[in-house]
Write a structure and sequence with these properties.
With about 200 residues, the chain is α+β, with helices and mostly antiparallel strands. The chain contains 5 helices and 7 strands. It folds into 2 domains: about 50 residues, no CATH class; about 110 residues. Helix content is about 40%, strand content about 15%. It is elongated and about 95 Å long.
Amino acid sequence: MNPIRKLLNCVSKTMPLDINPGRPARRSFGRQDEKSADGELSNGVKVSGGFTLLELVIVLTIISVLMATAIILWSTGSMTSNEASAIASVRIISTAETQYRLNNPVYGTLTELKDANLINDPSLASGIKSGYLFQANPYQSGRYTWYAEAVPEIYNSSGIKSFYIDERSMAIKGKDTGTSQFKPREEAELWPSLE
């Protein structure tokens, strides 16, 4: 018995491979007995044809393509849901900033909004939620203002678009910036509105 056959028989005790030079490899079930002319083994078991190596490779290739397609579709769906969650979270920050300003002389950061019980979601208050990073910036340029941004934690994996809102427009703006970096207010306020 050659070494390859020994190896295959050790690996596959329940379904040993019948490897003979000059004919395609076939899987056979049962004991490795000699076949008679009518296709029966010496112990009376009828031998049926197995799968060739080519057939197994084709099936495995088809399964691999289907799995790759499913992973891509799942990833796209995951990014879409992360972006929808980011938009909703930016709206929550906007509402919290408005309520915070009613009781304080300035607008607040995410931590201040959480401490005032205006943001009850601990993950949003920490600045990371559903694959997005968030920041709320009290911004002073001669008057008290604020803006908030959401950017993908990992660009092109957790999301693509970045989102922005401020006290002036109260409309969420969004754009694919090609990065996971927060942008300055002057640049982000020029993004197109999503509403």
